[in-house]
Amino acid sequence: MARDSCLARVTAGVAVGGAVGGAVGAVYGTYEAIRFKVPGLMKIRYIGQTTLGSAAIFGLFLGAGSLIHCGKSY
Length: 74
Hints:
- This protein has two helices and no strands.
- By secondary structure, the chain is mainly alpha-helical.
- The two termini are 21 Å apart.
């Protein structure tokens, strides 16, 4: 498989999007858990849900953008 194949670009987009989305989701989830005074161990669950949700959505959109951008040549 060529290094610049469309699948490789989309996979890289999803991976980068997931990493950035996870980092942003962890920061935002921590802020929201403290702000809304989520009790006890529910904070861990809340932060985890926010992190995974943000990583999935951001990875999906960055992967879709990479797929759309894949067919264009400059």
